[in-house]
């Protein structure tokens, strides 16, 4: 029989990870090796301490509880698994006595793949191998943690298999390969004729070996040749733009976008082993995507009125959507967004200053810096999130303090209004009062920092934590550099601060898994909505902050902090990789949700309905939660006093 | 019906056919009851769950167009042991029936005659217990072919999931009011157990639905106190 006669059964397995990776015919063969078994509710399918499982079980309908019996007689809930989840792999592959008890929580219909063919699959199919060795390590880890809560195991886990999820278009798929090139010695006129014949707007200037040296564009011809009165027989090398940036053909399209945005160029040379193989322009990108970050970024600098500025974030939303569709990584997306927000803030500072001068309030009385704090300070701002900031002005004699403070308070008030009209949240009275508090002299700020470190109660520190993610968006002074040294020295004398800061953070443990429309928390309760930020991002941000400050590191970005402490040996490489993937994945999910909400014109707040997640997302999220729990245990162990 | 009666009838058939020449498959079918113990636990038995699609509901005139069957061993449906074949009824299929099972004359144009399909099905069935939903209907068709071909009816034990359902799930009906009849239909049982039945109204899809229901009825029978093969045949046996 060539075709399994019940397509729905095959379709079901085709939706189950990792069976979804199988060729049609291979899946047909494997379905033929399976049994379909029924277990009434309450039946124990695998008993901890007994013989290893003889099958891999794939749940078609119903759910099971995976528990660990304890000496005391109570059971520790490890996981709840539902449709499309598997169980039994661990003891089967290890061939050791079963570690967990698996009980049907509801009437259960499950596929059973026997021992032998399953082992063969794991041995021969790389996707199966990765999938099951991965959860294997995780499971073992879960046992160790559950068995002894105080022993932290930092080893034995694989990295999250995110690579497959985050694929998108590559540069070589979009670049133009019909290259127009010339040698550096070519006369400008000859190059212009070539461009006209081929009806293109640019020509690449390459060495005889093929290495690109620069680019000559229509604009260059106009500005640097005609307007500058240069003779048409001069060599192109004299007038070309030398700031040509190169990118690999294997790079993702979104990376090309970001490169262009970062350098403010419209073309990138695509090179392989230093040889030119193509050119990619922002036009090529916008052809497939409909919007480009370069345009929006450049626009920010040109805008001359607040009204025009306020229209830009909406365009930025479309850019983010595009990046998301192209499979942009979280790191890059946050980069682009924070670059955009910084430019917007800078522009707003200029506009506000000149508005105040127009009003006769005069220029800034002393030099100042505009600091981003919290998520903005870490360059991790989601779309339209409230922005935390501080204005730090140079110290002034006491008799001038009031005048200066009044000027900066007015400045901050106008800035907040401006930011909120650009879509950043927060114009309430509380925020306005806050505005006044956030304008202070360097000396006043320093005093606050030292007070927090010296004796801040965890409750006060919960509010103050964001001030330790500080970054200058606009700097006339070197406040940020000097304050870090003072912070580090103060911590040196007050190690207890790190633990107080830890205690001030989120103590909630992430859920253990998902069942249908619910997330399952570590006590076996069901949650119908999840605050991703609270359970998965905030703990990582907090841990990274503490570890970085412990090591006198000035990075504020969470991924950079984690990278830096890992290089110093504080975190194991594997743990760091897991964290990186977990943090990126959750961030990406969060950005996607925000965009979706913007698109639908509603604001669901920070909450996520687990029912909206697909199978892969659930799995990834579950793995992410496990990594976050481990990190929490690690910091608790290291800093608890 | 009980197992002892079934064995007695089987012995009579053997005596009657003792000197007649029989094809191998028929000779093998005569000995399928050997070694069956009425004390064997029901859950551990080997079953073949079968469903037929026909040209109509009149078993005197109508013909089989499709046979679907799954094997259930120890309560597990063996997805690799499937019997599924169209049979050529040698006549047209009424539109009413096409509407039910979706089998069109095109589907069965190249199909083998029912005789040949049944011969292979006998091989697939072996010594296992036949299970069908409203088994008498399917057995009329199967036995008509068996009698015509071999001069005997199918010798395997046959149990009916409708009877199992009535016994295990529906309260006793001493006055024969058949109040429970509708509650034992395939659709009602599928709904009761929350089963999503794939490809309903194809022979194999209905066989799968019946097998899924059997999986649930077996433990219910045990709960109700009918734990052995003898009990099962007494409660739900049709021949």
| Spatial arrangement of strands, main beta sheet of chain A | 1-8-3-6
Our count of domains of chain A comes out at 4
The mean pLDDT of chain A is 79
Number of strands of chain A: 23
Mean pLDDT of chain B: 88
Question: Span between N and C termini of chain B?
Answer: 7 Å
Pattern of helices and strands of chain B:
HHEEEHHEHEHEHHHH
The structural domain count of chain B equals 1
**Proportion of beta-strand residues of chain B:** 15-25%
Range of helix content of chain A: 40-55%
Q: What is the CATH architecture annotation of the largest domain in chain A?
A: Sandwich
Number of strands of chain B: 6
Low-confidence stretches of chain A are 139-168
Strand order of the largest sheet of chain B: 4-3-2-1-5-6
Computed structural class of chain B: alpha/beta
Biggest sheet details of chain A: 4 strands, antiparallel
Judging from the principal axes of the Cα atoms, what is the shape of chain A?
globular
Distance between the termini of chain A: 68 Å
Characterization of this structure:
- The complex is a heterodimer of chains A (641) and B (239).
- Chain A contains 25 helices and 23 strands.
- Chain A is of the alpha+beta class and 641 residues long.
- Chain A starts with 6 loop residues before the first helix and ends with a helix.
- In chain A, the strands form seven sheets. A four-stranded antiparallel sheet of chain A has the order 1-8-3-6. Chain A has a four-stranded antiparallel sheet with strand order 2-7-4-5, covered by helices on one side. Chain A has a four-stranded mixed sheet with strand order 17-16-15-18.
- Chain A is globular.
- In chain B, α7 (161-168) packs parallel to α9 (203-223).
- Chain B has one domain: 2-Layer Sandwich (Nucleotidyltransferase, domain 5).
- Chain B has a six-stranded mixed sheet, with helices on both faces.
- The mean pLDDT of chain B is 88.
- Chain B has helices spanning 3-17, 24-30, 95-101, 105-108, 114-125, 135-150, 161-168, 186-192, 203-223, 229-236; strands spanning 46-54, 64-73, 76-88, 112-113, 129-132, 158-160.
- Chain B has ten helices and six strands.
- Classes of the chains: A alpha+beta (641), B alpha/beta (239).
- The interface between A and B is medium-sized, with 21 and 23 residues.
- β1 of chain A pairs antiparallel with β3 (76-88) of chain B.
């Amino acid at each position: 029989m060539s075709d399994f006669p019940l397509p729905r059964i095959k379709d079901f397995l085709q939706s189950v990870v990792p069976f979804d990776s199988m060729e049609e015919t291979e899946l047909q063969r494997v379905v033929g090796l399976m049994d379909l078994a029924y277990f009434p509710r309450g039946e124990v399918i695998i008993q901890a301490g007994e013989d290893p499982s003889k099958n891999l079980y794939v749940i078609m309908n119903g759910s099971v509880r995976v528990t660990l019996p304890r000496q005391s007689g109570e059971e520790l809930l490890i996981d709840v698994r539902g449709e499309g989840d598997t169980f039994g792999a661990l003891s089967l592959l290890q061939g050791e006595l079963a570690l967990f008890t698996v009980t049907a929580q509801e009437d259960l219909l499950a596929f059973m793949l026997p021992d032998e063919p399953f082992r063969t699959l794991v041995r021969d199919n790389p996707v199966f191998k990765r999938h099951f060795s991965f959860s294997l390590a995780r499971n073992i880890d879960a046992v160790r943690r559950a068995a002894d809560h105080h022993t932290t195991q930092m080893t034995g886990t694989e990295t999250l298999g995110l690579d497959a999820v985050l694929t998108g278009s590559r540069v070589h798929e979009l670049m133009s390969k019909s290259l127009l090139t010339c040698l550096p010695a070519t006369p400008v006129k000859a190059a212009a004729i070539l461009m006209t014949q081929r009806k293109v707007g640019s020509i690449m200037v390459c060495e005889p070996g093929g290495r690109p040296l620069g680019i000559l564009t229509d604009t260059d011809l106009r500005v640097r040749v005609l307007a500058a009165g240069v003779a048409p027989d001069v060599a192109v090398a004299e007038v070309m733009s030398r700031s040509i940036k190169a990118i690999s053909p294997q790079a993702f399209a979104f990376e090309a976008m970001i490169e262009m945005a970062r350098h403010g160029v419209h073309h990138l040379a695509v090179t392989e082993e230093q040889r030119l193989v193509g050119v990619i322009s922002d036009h090529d990108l916008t052809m497939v995507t409909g919007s480009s970050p370069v345009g929006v970024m450049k626009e920010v600098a040109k805008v001359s009125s607040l009204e025009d500025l306020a229209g830009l974030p909406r365009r930025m939303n479309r850019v983010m959507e595009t990046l998301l569709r192209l499979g942009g990584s979280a790191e890059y997306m946050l980069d682009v967004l924070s670059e955009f927000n910084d430019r917007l803030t800078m522009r707003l500072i200029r506009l506000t200053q000149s508005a105040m001068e127009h009003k006769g309030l005069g220029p800034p009385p002393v030099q100042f810096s505009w600091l981003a704090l919290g998520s903005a300070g870490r360059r991790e701002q989601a779309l339209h999130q409230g922005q935390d900031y501080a204005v730090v002005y140079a110290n002034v004699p006491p008799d001038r303090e009031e005048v200066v403070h009044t000027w900066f308070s007015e400045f901050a008030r106008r800035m907040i209004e401006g930011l909120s009209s650009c879509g950043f949240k927060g114009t309430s009275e509380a925020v306005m009062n806050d505005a006044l508090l956030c304008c202070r002299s360097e000396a006043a700020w320093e005093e606050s920092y030292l007070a927090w470190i010296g004796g801040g109660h965890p409750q006060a520190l919960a509010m103050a934590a964001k001030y330790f993610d500080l970054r200058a968006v606009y700097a006339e002074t070197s406040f940020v550099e000097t304050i870090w040294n003072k912070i580090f020295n103060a911590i040196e004398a007050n190690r207890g601060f790190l633990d107080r800061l830890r205690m001030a953070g989120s103590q909630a443990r992430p859920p253990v898994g998902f069942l249908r429309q619910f997330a399952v928390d570590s006590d076996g309760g069901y949650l119908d909505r999840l605050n991703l930020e609270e359970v998965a991002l905030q703990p990582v941000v907090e841990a990274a902050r503490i570890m970085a400050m412990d090591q006198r590191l000035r990075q504020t970005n969470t991924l950079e902090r984690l990278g830096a402490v890992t290089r110093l040996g504080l975190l194991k490489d594997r743990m760091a990789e897991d964290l990186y993937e977990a943090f990126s994945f959750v961030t990406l999910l969060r950005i996607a949700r925000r965009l979706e909400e913007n698109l639908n014109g509603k604001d669901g707040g920070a909450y996520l309905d687990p029912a909206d997640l697909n199978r892969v997302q659930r799995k990834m999220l579950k793995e992410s939660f496990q990594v976050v729990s481990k990190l929490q245990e690690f910091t608790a162990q290291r800093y608890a006093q | 019906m009980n197992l002892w009666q079934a064995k007695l009838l089987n012995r009579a058939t053997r005596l009657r056919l003792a000197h007649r020449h029989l094809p191998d498959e028929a000779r093998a079918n005569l000995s399928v009851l050997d070694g069956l113990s009425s004390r064997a636990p029901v859950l551990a038995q080997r079953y073949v769950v079968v469903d037929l699609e026909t040209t109509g509901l009149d078993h005197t005139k109508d013909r089989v167009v499709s046979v679907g069957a799954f094997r259930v061993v120890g309560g597990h449906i063996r997805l690799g042991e499937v019997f599924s074949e169209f049979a050529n009824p040698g006549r047209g299929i009424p539109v009413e029936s096409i509407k039910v099972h979706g089998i069109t004359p095109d589907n069965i144009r190249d199909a083998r005659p029912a005789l040949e399909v049944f011969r292979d099905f006998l091989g697939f069935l072996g010594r296992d217990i036949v299970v069908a939903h409203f088994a008498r209907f399917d057995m009329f068709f199967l036995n008509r072919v068996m009698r015509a071909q071999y001069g005997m009816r199918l010798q395997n034990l046959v149990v009916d999931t409708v009877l199992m359902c009535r016994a295990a799930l529906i309260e006793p009906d001493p006055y024969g009011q058949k109040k429970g009849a509708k509650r034992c239909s395939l659709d009602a049982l599928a709904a009761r157990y929350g089963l999503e039945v794939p490809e309903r109204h194809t022979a194999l899809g209905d066989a799968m639905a019946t097998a899924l229901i059997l999986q649930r009825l077996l433990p219910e029978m045990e709960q109700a106190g009918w734990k052995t093969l003898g009990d099962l045949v007494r409660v739900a046996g049709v021949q």
